[in-house]
Sequence to fold (865 residues):
Amino acid sequence: MNSAVIDVHENIASHESYLSSGWNWRSWLLTLDHKRIGILYVVAITMLFGIGGSAAAMIRLDLLTPHSQLVSIETYNKLFTMHGVIMVWFFLIPSIPATLGNFLVPMMIGARDLAFPRLNLLSWYLFIFGGLFTIYALLAGGVDTGWTFYAPYSTSFSTSHVFAVASGIFIAGFSSILTGLNFIVTIHEMRAPGMTWFRLPLFIWSMYATSLILVLATPVLAMTLMLMGMERTFGIGVFDPGLGGDPLLFQHLFWFYSHPAVYIMIVPAMGVASEIISCFCRNPVFGYRFMAYAILAIAAFGFVVWGHHMFVSGQSAYAGTVFSLLTFLVSVPSAIKVFNWTATLYKAHITFHAPMLYALGFVGLFTIGGLTGLFLASLGLDVQLHDTYFVVAHFHYIMVGAAVMAFFGGIHFWWPKITGRMYPEGWARFCAILTFIGFNLTFFPQFILGYLGMPRRYPDYPPEFQVWNVLSSAGSSLLAFGYVLPLAYLLWSLRYGARAPANPWGATGLEWQTDSPPPSENFHTTPIVTEEAYAYHTESAHG
Amino acid sequence: MSMDSLPFFPTRASTIGGPIDELYFAWLILAGVVAVAVALTMVWFAVRYRRGSPASRVIAGPAEHARTMHHIEITWTIVPLVLFLGMFAWSAEVYYRSIRVPKDALPVYVVAKQWMWHAEHPAGEREINELHVPVNRPVELVMTSQDVIHSLSIPDFRIKQDVLPGRYTTLSFTANRPGEYHLYCTQFCGTSHSHMVGRVVVMEPAAYEQWLSAHADVPTMASRGERRYHELGCDGCHGAQAAVRAPKLEGLFGRPIPLRDGRTVRADERFMHDAVLLPNENVPAGYDANMPSFRGQISEEDLLDLIEYLKSKGNATHDGGQ
Fold:
């Protein structure tokens, strides 16, 4: 009996898992295993998050005083640009899809790997290449245009490294496109027997919708950056009116990509939250089909609302009106999702492990971020709020508060599966709560600053705004602990954490039916699916 | 700012401020109610349905339950939709009210450049990073940029508009409270973006008249424009005795102009501006594309003077066009 237990244990821990199949550089850097590539992404984006986060910390420190004292205004401009560029393109966009998505998409649908493993590895190298290019340019002298690169400042006036940074983003864009393509083909073609579309976990629906956006929107970014580079380098007039171009054309093209890009960041987070909430409620996600349709609706509507970034840009009032209306329409499916997550708690058997705390925090921050988005969608009101700290607070609630909360929740939830180890539960719960509180203390004061009229991208500001800036900076120090501590205890757990069983949460989903960590081929035998996703109701009878 | 220590709310000093604040309060209440309701429901469920709690999880009549759930889904789809459409209509109405320029608005021209605001009054006064306006009188700012995109924001008036190179955008307001207010650039425009700030001075009519008369010796914009018109040799082609066949400019402003390529455009500020800098973009029907560009020879301020002059010519002979 005893030896049999040890046998199973050994089996799980070392013999057959994807982690034990080689430990030299080649086995990692040339791996075609989607799980290992997922981990390569985790390592890369963690470092990039560190760089982007350091820039944010310096920004918040500098804003403690109305007159920039820590850094010069030139440096401040480069800091917020670096923060935006790194966080948007090299952390938030790849965060959930490239790490958890890579690891989980084949496992959740019962496949051995993604459809194109070599393409998957190429995506990682493109991402790294683009990232190194960008970091080099940012460190070699930096760029001061803001992550939005508005022309003609970026094309004809800025003397900083615009072309180099744009090239880095351009290269990384192909990584996005290829990952999206890989996921779409995999989800269409490689589902296990019995895994019909409406038995897919909502995380897979969210990856599918995200992939569609990646494939359809990213090329527009590539074109825009290319036109910008051509105008800057060769003086070909596209955007600069001095060369016969139109500066609003740049904004239309830029936001045609960058608004859907927000959904690239938040839709995967919705998928993660759905998995976690359902698991710790022991309840199927309320209104599963509505949730799947809502994800697709958000992805589709997301393509036709870009003009709400341009209400005061000089775009026609009629265009603004149409974009405002469409923006209100896209917020309906978002509202449905919040109600459905809440309803999933009804008649549930709830436990409050760290992933659940992160997921509930996600719903809270997403609700505030979504509601304040409605303020901005309102034409007359947006005039006052546009380009102020209200906008800064709003999009951080969505893209950072909600999306990163879900990302951390997902990392904790699947950590036992990915590493075969349990994380320390007490520390994790503490960090989930600390992050939620720190985030609100950091960004809520910025809503008030926004209506008072404090503009974005101001290192020097009138003294009456100082009190709210000090509060915000103070909150950000708590937030920093909330983001850094998990790195420490998760690394600790790799060596000292308890061994994880195959299914520590008692979750449904194919990824939990195989070993922790899984074998290289994911499943010992091809799984056959016979029931809906989140079939927890059988357990609730005796729970 | 009303409260120095902990400001929550900006001063309201324009007529559009009230309607915009009403929208803001409506959203605060609506969003607050929804957020609190969602949060309370979550906490209530989380406590009541924690694992091991005695609360009943029994669902009676699965078929009826499914129907109820379906009705709930439909309800919380339709209710937000109707609410959102209502708020959309309200906010659009406020927006259209805010951009409507009253007929008797006092025009002031604004040229933005890295990193200053340059205002010109038709009577001739020029200001840098300041804007003097009378109280209770509609003002229309006609704005352009000499370099990159800027944005003029006066939070206490609840107004904002991007200022673009190569075109004119307008911003109108009626200040209803004398005092001094912040003016910001809110579109990132380079190194000293955060120093591209100034103040708006709203004055009682008597004080405003006094301020105007202190600058009475300054030539008007139209007279400066007329001088520039002759310096640049415009009348060599457009003048009455000119040998070259070029359009006559009297009474041009505001008229529809048929173009060689079949389009018809209105001769507004942007048309005049482009005609000087990009003359071959819009060639009037019946004329050759032989006007040289004056790019690099004329500043945005001079162009505004020139446009004021051409407008005054129109007023003299044609009663202002349309």
Remarks:
- The domain at 221-318 of chain B is CATH 1.10.760.10 (Cytochrome Bc1 Complex; Chain D, domain 2).
- The helical segments of chain B are 17-48, 62-99, 205-213, 221-231, 235-238, 269-277, 300-318.
- Residues 316-322 of chain B have pLDDT under 50 and may be disordered.
